[in-house]
Amino acid sequence: MKTVKFKLTRFAVIAIALGMSAGIQAKDNSLANFHSEMDGCETCHTKPRHVTDSETHENMQCKSCHGEYSDLANSELHFDPHTSHLGDINCTSCHKGHEAPKFQCNNCHSFEDDKMPFAEAKKKPKWDKGWDNEKIKKAIAAGPVETTDVVVIGAGSAGFNAAISAKRAGAKVILFEKAPYSGGNSMLAAGGINAVGTRQQKERGIEDKVEWYAEDAMKGGRYKNDPALVKILAEESASAVEWLESLGANMDGLKRSGGARVNRTHRPSGGHSVGPHIIDVLRKAAAKEQVDTRLNSKVVKLVLDNQDNNKVIGVVIHGKHSGHYMVAADSVVLATGGYGMNKEMIAYYRPTFKDMTSSNNVTATGDGILLAKEAGASMTDIDWVQAHPTIGKDSRILVSETVRGVGAIMVNVHGSRFINELTTRDRASDAILKQPEQWAWLVFDEQLISKKKMVRGYDHLGMLSKANSVEELAKITGMKNLPQTVSDYNKYKAQGKDEAFGRDLMPLSIEKGPFYAVRVQPGIHHTMGGVAINTESEVLNIQSRPMIGLYAAGEVTGGVHGFNRLGGNAIADTVIFGRRAGEHAAAHALKD
User: Fold this and answer.
1) How many CB atoms lie within 10 A of CB 62?
2) How many Cα atoms occupy the beta-carbon half-sphere of 414 within 13 Å?
């Protein structure tokens, strides 16, 4: 069918939706049947029909008719789902052809009143539900359908950095992502990347040392970290920022996160979130390097050599459309993230957190940990789970600790401060949980929003209480002690000394309206433990020897952060060890 690209107005969208609503009555309320009535299955699919797991052709067909996302109106919505922080959502990520649509935003937010056409279509069973051991065995018995030098599992920051580094080293790389979009947990990162000795610090006259960075990380982790891994984290942090900048990232913003003695958290200037920005940069860099990235492709098995069960020789994939198949590889990199969204694993490893909400992406289900464990890898610090102190109450929206770093204060339900806001995450979380209500308020003014624009998004999501005066805010929220608390804090700011809790960084007073408050509570944010690695990002077996051809980086690993991770060290971890994993994986694959 010859298609014509056109730009949709709000009225066109409504008209199409109405037309669809009428048209779908003809058969079974599915998008596929609606389009097949136009020109058969070829309206969306190639002929002969072949659908790849990434559904690349189908998404191109959608855009050839309906235009790019920038062409799409958002109708009456108060938000635009086509320009979200998810970045690379494809048409088919939400608009399912043969089943009910899935509004990806609802994984974290609640937009239940906003429905897409064909919402009444029948839902099919999830294609990736569980691991089918019989099909896995058949795929291995059938042998590999293709061969590559390096397989990278997981398209978050660690995975992208590994894939790009391996490709630049001359390796043939395939990057597999189980979700219908890339980014993982990294795209939700709100803080920044910690680094020492950078251009940004030097331009601002900030004295910092590699030793200070390492000491802060060790202290924050209660000295349970692997010192060798922390040493690399500190020493290679500046080059990590330079690497991101070389790929096109803006890291000119500089703030301070909890547990750091100086400003070393680098982020985009203008107050924008670091995660979406970095993932967008990495995604484009991977495309430029021609990394073969495949979505809707879940790795369900690490294949071991029959002659040497310490050697990984490939993986089994469960593709959304292609089913189970094996890919042979000389090297495999695990970059699958943590298990913060796996309730069963949380209940097993950290039962006191089992009822907590989580800020994590829905993809953070511990797949890589389970794969590695089954293959004989050693685990470390696996039961150490971090609660972030400031997740929006009754939501899964993380309120970055840089909000406190920029100037917000934290108070209880009565409006009284109860801790130094810049302490480490574990101590701040413990302090909130010791409050009778087990939640708190963050309070700030318009000055903070002007410096940290991402906070405006909390207002759009209905999370903020807002008033023209502190007294009015106190009345709205029931915080009777707030006026006195704010007055005291402003006095401490003016005199440069926090007499109540010893906070040594108070960038802003709270005196320019409007004034804001957001309710927060601790929630699962990061799983510190995971696969044991050495300094070359090689995965260690239960005898603490490197497994041949298996590497890991990012939150899937343990040892880097100890008992508690400092804000800004996760992105540093993913970039630094992602690059190391990719480089060493490529070197191993190409050594012969």
Assistant:
1) 19
2) 7
Q: How many angstroms separate the first and last alpha carbons of the chain?
A: 50
Strands 385-392 and 144-153: unpaired
Topology (CATH) of 10-107: Flavocytochrome C3; Chain A, domain 2 (1.10.1130)
CB 302 within 8 A of CB 518: no
Q: Are 337 and 364 in contact (CB under 8 A)?
A: yes
Contact 248, 285 (CB under 8 A): yes
DSSP β-ladder status, 308-319 and 323-334: antiparallel
Name the residues annotated as catalytic: 425
Instruction: State the greatest distance between any 2 C-alpha atoms of the chain, in Å, as a whole number.
Output: 75
**Angstrom distance (rounded) from CA 508 to CA 445:** 9
Domain 135-189+276-384+532-592 has CATH 3.50.50.60: yes
φ, ψ dihedrals at 365, nearest 5° = -115, 15
Per the CB < 8 A criterion, the answer to whether 216 and 261 are in contact is yes
**Inter-CA distances, 32 with 39, 41, 66, 92, 95, Å:** 11, 8, 16, 11, 10
Radius of gyration of the chain (CA): 25
Task: Outline which parts of the chain fall under CATH 3.90.700.10.
Answer: 386-524
Torsion angle of alpha carbons 413, 414, 420, 422, nearest 10°? 40
pTM across the whole model: 0.84
CATH code 3.50.50.60 region(s) in the chain: 135-189+276-384+532-592
- Tell me if 391 sits within 8 A of 520, measured CB to CB: yes
The tokens for 413 are 């339900």
With H, G, I as helix, E, B as strand and everything else as coil, classify residue 103: coil
Q: What are 489-520's pLDDT values in tens digits?
A: 999 999 999 999 999 999 999 999 999 999 99
Q: Which of 585, 529, 532, 225 is nearest to 376 (CA)?
A: 532
pLDDT at 2 over 60: no
Q: What is the CATH number of domain 386-524?
A: 3.90.700.10
